[in-house]
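Q: Given only this backbone (394 positions), what sequence would you predict?
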């Protein structure tokens, strides 16, 4: 899985998942040649690699033992983690959404990793209990319809999506979309606390935390829910209820395409040509979880924008781990935390290979980006629940 030897990093994760689905165990060699996978040598696996265009090497048992000995050396920042079972994957996404509207759905399809879609009805009916891993599509959990009101309130797609969201909320027994979305967010919170793995990108990150922090408070203006907001609602926000963020200020203007001060999009002073974020280095033996989530063939990853591009460093809770950051810009791009028995990862931006994705833009063709470091981070999270659990030491 290093830069020189692997022709298709993304499909290599698909091969790994496919092998796990056959009840075969795999060793993930953290920090060894870009985070390589040690698979059993069978003709079937070799053939599948050839079909999918994934580079591989056949090694002897003695060579494998030599590699594992090297990895186990205390002087090497490496570890061999056993992957045991293919996780069952859910993608939280609106009905009728096209797969290319969301980077995770797109890369799962490209890597040929199976998933199921769920939305509000399934979540509220405890459907998440069937899954090991949940991805939150680009979503607004605050009931403000993505804050698209200022630019798109007259657009047919906005009017239609608002009607559909209101109809779904009524069907589920709610008078407002914000009330339905809050209960969905609470169900997702409980899923993570109970031991689930949750991954979110773009506006699903900050809007999720904002919804939790505003439980019992109306932060929606009349154009969103038909009545006024709670007076002085900023002072009633409860940061103790959030997963990742604290001390943020909500954006109260309904015409501004922004939820809060968490997002760095409007505060960024960085050109596209130099927009990169660096992955942090962790101890593979002592901190295998963040090491797993940061496996890559480069420590420097191209930046990319979204409604929520990156997170204000000073508004991240102290117990949340920053795994990718642009230090010069004071922003975190990729963060991870523990909640109850479960885990969450937030990744800023919309599409790792589409720098400034806009409404109506053409979809990304991943055939053109088979070695994408930004997409690898997503797939690290997909395989993370397959790892044999070890107690985290720090």
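A: Predicted residues:
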């Amino acid at each position: 899985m290093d830069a020189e030897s692997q022709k298709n990093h993304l499909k290599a994760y698909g091969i790994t998942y496919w092998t796990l689905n056959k009840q075969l165990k795999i060793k993930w060699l953290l920090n060894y040649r870009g985070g390589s996978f040690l698979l059993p040598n069978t003709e079937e696996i070799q053939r599948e690699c050839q079909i999918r265009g994934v580079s591989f090497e056949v090694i002897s048992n003695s060579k494998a033992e030599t590699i594992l000995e090297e990895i186990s050396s205390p002087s090497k920042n490496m570890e061999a983690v056993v992957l045991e079972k293919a996780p069952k994957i859910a993608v939280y996404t609106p009905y009728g959404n096209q797969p290319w509207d969301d980077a995770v759905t797109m890369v799962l399809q490209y890597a040929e990793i199976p998933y199921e879609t769920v939305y509000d009805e399934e979540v509220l009916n405890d459907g998440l209990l069937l899954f090991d891993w949940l991805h939150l599509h680009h979503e607004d959990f605050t009931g403000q319809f993505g804050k698209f009101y200022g630019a798109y309130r007259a657009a047919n797609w906005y009017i239609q999506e608002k009607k559909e969201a209101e109809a779904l909320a009524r069907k589920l027994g709610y008078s407002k979309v914000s009330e339905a979305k809050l209960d969905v967010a609470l169900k997702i919170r409980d899923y993570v606390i109970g031991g689930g793995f949750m991954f979110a990108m773009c506006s699903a990150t900050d809007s999720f935390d904002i919804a939790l922090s505003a439980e019992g408070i109306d932060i929606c203006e009349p154009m969103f829910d038909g009545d006024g907001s709670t007076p002085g609602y900023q002072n009633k926000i409860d940061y103790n209820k959030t997963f990742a963020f604290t001390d943020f200020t909500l954006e109260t203007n309904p015409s501004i395409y922004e939820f809060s001060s968490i997002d760095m999009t409007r505060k960024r002073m960085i050109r596209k040509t130099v927009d990169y974020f660096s992955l942090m280095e962790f101890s593979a033996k002592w901190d295998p979880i963040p090491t797993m989530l940061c496996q890559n063939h480069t420590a420097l990853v191209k930046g990319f924008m979204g409604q929520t591009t990156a997170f204000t460093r000073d508004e991240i809770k102290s117990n949340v781990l920053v795994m990718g950051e642009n230090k010069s810009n004071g922003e975190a791009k990729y963060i991870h935390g523990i909640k109850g028995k479960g885990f969450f990862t937030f990744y800023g931006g919309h599409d790792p290979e589409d720098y400034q994705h806009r409404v109506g833009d053409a979809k990304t063709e991943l055939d053109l980006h088979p070695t994408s470091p930004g997409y690898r981070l997503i797939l690290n999270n997909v395989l993370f629940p397959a790892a044999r659990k070890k107690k985290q030491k720090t």
